[in-house]
């Protein structure tokens, strides 16, 4: 079974690699896209993910954080400040870890769609 080019480029982007070759870095900074791949020269900086990555991050983390909040509310042996601090820290760390990966995957999907269209 053949894997679609869009899926391959999305997986490459998820790893933070160039969606065209999979070798070069997709980002020059935390979320700043490199203008072009250092290995193959693909112009990955032209693809704009815009508001998609933050939206998908919230969409994915929202239900998880809601469930954790309900669980923490029932765990009354811990002080309220500890539960709130833990949930807040988890939310921040999870969003910061997930955001560049989602942005890379979205850029990869857009790259794959551009190549097939």
Indicate the overall shape: elongated
In percent, how helical is the residue content? 55-70%
Number of helices: 3
Derived structural class: mainly alpha
The stretches of 5 or more residues where confidence is low (pLDDT under 50) are none
Order of helices and strands: HHH
Q: State the assembly state of the protein chains.
A: single chain
**Number of folding domains?**
1
Report on this model:
Helix content is 60%, strand content 0%. By secondary structure, it is mostly helical. The chain has one domain (5-116).
Topology (elements, then pairings):
Blueprint: H1 5-14, H2 52-74, H3 80-116
Helix pairs in contact: 1-3, 2-3
What attributes does this structure have?
117 residues; mainly alpha; 3 helices
